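Throughout this chapter, every protein is written as a compact record of paired, labelled lines. The reader may check this reading against the record printed directly beneath this paragraph:
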Amino acid sequence: MLSRRAGADPEADDAAMQARIAYDTCPLCRSDNFTKIVDADCSQHPLYQPVIPPVMHWMACGDCGHVFTDGYFTDEAAAVIFSRVMEYQAVGWEMEKQRAIFSRIVERVSRHVADGVWLDIGFGNGSLLFTAAEYGFTPVGADLRQDNTQALIHAGIEGHCIDITKFDQQGRFSVISMADVLEHMPFPREGLAAAHRLLNDDGILFLSMPNADCPLWRNLNARNANPYWGELEHFHNFGRPRLYRFLEESGFRPVHYTISERYRVGMEIIARRVA
């Protein structure tokens, strides 16, 4: 188990904790039956700044099993984090290499829907949208980083700097991708509800994230080498069984699972809108 960093200043930690709003209930099942399982140091994360609490407290729901941080960032703290962009998040980063990687994702999705408007939420470097366009999809991006949104628009793709839960284009999209996004959302249930609303009938949802219920995850834990406990921007850790139940509760039917080649311990799921 990971622990509090050595030499931490309790008063500084208390002040920094004001950057997080505590969860009163489990973000998935709304139970108040949860306990702390892990403390992790996030102060070495590249996006860390002193306004952010240096220690992340991870909780487990006693009723549904979901694992989540004890709180999510205030708007002010989130703005500090989003003021920086990792190199790999810049629009156009390693475009040729990423084109080959994302082609395999687009090919899998295209087996379930051949064309239409593809919305990528949290589009990052834009590679998924660039590749989807090559396959005949109409690409649209939504992100919370203003500079990235402007760069995407400059590259000729429709872009929106908006929280997806506030996006008002009901039924427009044939595909919505949330590649390593759901675990960043304070309230994932609202994120999936928005995706369900924005997709057309029988639309396709693509998700990717770490798989917290697989042998490799447990192996990393045993070696005290799991990087995701200190992942500053994450609020949730999903395992495949809990994620599948969550998708079904939200009106989606999982139709395909594979292992991600982009991130360690990653999983990728394709699900169809069913209700």
About this structure: The first strand starts at residue 20 and ends at 22. Residues 1-17 have pLDDT under 50 and may be disordered. The chain has two domains: 10-82, 87-214+238-273. The two ends are 41 Å apart (CA to CA).
